[in-house]
Amino acid sequence: xxxxxxxxxxxxxxxxxxxxxxxxxxxxxxxxxxxxxxxxxxxxxxxxxxxxxxxxxxxxxxxxxxxxxxxxxxxxxxxxxxxxxxxxxxxxxxxxxxxxxxxxxxxxxxxxxxxxxxxxxxxxxxxxxxxxxxxxxxxxxxxxxxxxxxxxxxxxxxxxxxxxxxxxxxxxxxxxxxxxxxxxxxxxxxxxxxxxxxxxxxxxxxxxxxxxxxxxxxxxxxxxxxxxxxxxxxxxxxxxxxxxxxxxxxxxxxxxxxxxxxxxxxxxxxxxxxxxxxxxxxxxxxxxxxxxxxxxxxxxxxxxxxxxxxxxxxxxxxxxxxxxxxxxxx
Length: 330
What we know:
By secondary structure, this protein is an alpha/beta fold. The protein has 11 helices and 16 strands. The protein has helices at residues 24-27, 31-36, 49-58, 66-73, 107-117, 162-174, 208-216, 227-237, 249-255, 259-277, 321-328; strands at 4-8, 39-44, 82-93, 96-99, 127-130, 136-141, 155-156, 178-186, 201-205, 220-223, 242-247, 283-286, 290-291, 298-299, 302-307, 318-319. An 8-stranded mixed β-sheet has the order 10-9-11-1-12-15-2-16, sandwiched between helices. Strands 3, 4, 5, 6, 7 and 8 form a 6-stranded antiparallel β-sheet that branches. Strand 13 (290-291) and strand 14 form a beta hairpin. Helix 4 packs across helix 7 (208-216). The two termini are 13 Å apart.
């Protein structure tokens, strides 16, 4: 009997003044989830999705940098001496890096500016793949692995070294301060094996972060941008093995500080779950971290997971992250 793992990315939150001091998921109407998954416990969240997922599925924090995982999720070349760079939309202004979570307003122009100037990196045999709203991963044969500020918290500007830095600033010049800024850089090193009890699994997401973790563990991955299209794909895949279904939009709308969009995507997810998985006997809902609709930032906190699997976990028990899967899958 196969198991469906559903990640509601960043569902935890701060109480919101527009919601009468409640959190968005406390306001959202999700009758299917509450009825279908009555066994409710908690685990320890992590600051980023890849940190949580790696420990959730292997029992260990990741050795691989985020950019490497995302390159794997996008099917890019990370062999040999190639270094991966995660590129995120940001505005460089007044000595600060201001991360943008409204890049859908300018991402077409940003991607065009990047491609116009991509020749600046040609001696490094570069590859680039874009994904959600102008985000990108670049891989190339380069020795520079800079330690640079990471989103979502705005940070003092730090110059990117070498030709990649000149490329970043050239795009910023053309875009009046807007560019794709690198972080999470690195090379392929090693990966811990997944828990054997997971067996064959298919990961379905619009995020190369989640897909990259799954790919690094040897699982099948499917990049599906539209949230509604992920559910029939997950239903079919569940016939052949376990499935990891990722709802990244929950986190994205939190970064936009829009509690109403967050409520809407949670309610839409619940309706889709009922439509496709009303008869599924093994479902695990889980959350990787909080993402605040008040500040737009990640919150490291205890996070809920709910299931319909019979376990020895008591209601409200705080289970260490590296013990969740072994106890669920006994």
